[in-house]
Amino acid sequence: xxxxxxxxxxxxxxxxxxxxxxxxxxxxxxxxxxxxxxxxxxxxxxxxxxxxxxxxxxxxxxxxxxxxxxxxxxxxxxxxxxxxxxxxxxxxxxxxxxxxxxxxxxxxxxxxxxxxxxxxxxxxxxxxxxxxxxxxxxxxxxxxxxxxxxxxxxxxxxxxxxxxxxxxxxxxxxxxxxxxx
Length: 181
Ligand SMILES: C[S@@+](CC[C@H](N)C(=O)[O-])C[C@H]1O[C@@H](n2cnc3c(N)ncnc32)[C@H](O)[C@@H]1O
Description:
The chain has helices at residues 9-21, 35-42, 56-65, 102-108, 116-125, 145-154; strands at 24-29, 46-53, 70-73, 84-89, 94-95, 109-111, 129-140, 157-166, 171-179. The radius of gyration is 15 Å and the shape is globular. Helix 1 runs parallel beside helix 2. The N and C termini lie far apart (40 Å). It has a 7-stranded mixed sheet with strand order 3-2-1-4-7-9-8, sandwiched between helices. A two-stranded parallel sheet has the order 5-6. The chain has 181 residues and is an alpha/beta fold. It has a single domain (9-179), classed as Rossmann fold (3-Layer(aba) Sandwich), CATH 3.40.50.150. The chain contains 6 helices and 9 strands. The structure holds S-adenosylmethionine (SAM). Residues 5, 7, 11, 29-32, 35-36, 52-55, 58, 74-76, 90-92, 106-107 line the site of S-adenosylmethionine.
């Protein structure tokens, strides 16, 4: 897959929070062109940064263009070892569209309803968060936010909406998920 997600309003919302809140060991899931990795590298409280993407071209691109971080090809946490203080993910979060080609779908579609991949990620992320670690993510009113918050609560996460942005057809939410101890 040779195309990469062009950073958008969702990326921007997350960059602001990563610059403010990231610390320690950071993992950026679905790193694409590595914008969130770059934001984490700028933060003085960050010790190490790993970027992961299912798309090998994204990993190859980031390895060539970004120094100071590690990049891994991985379907969610399949090839990820260890635990992190902060995990960021700007996931594909829109409901599937029949006309969409596979390459675009990988970047934008989170499944039939839109929230499926994000929920799968939240399930797996539990095993990769250090104590007091947290997740920074973004999704839309089109994702089915009620379902995301309900599932996250059942998984043991507390959710905090850090920011939101109204767009033409949807509203984006930037959310912090932290395991309630
Ligand atoms: C919306 S883009 C975000 C790209 C970049 N982080 C940004 O904010 O600009 C979603 C990214 O998730 C990746 N992705 C999709 N499914 C994935 C999976 N199962 N595991 C890891 N990455 C995945 C896509 O290849 C794409 O790069």
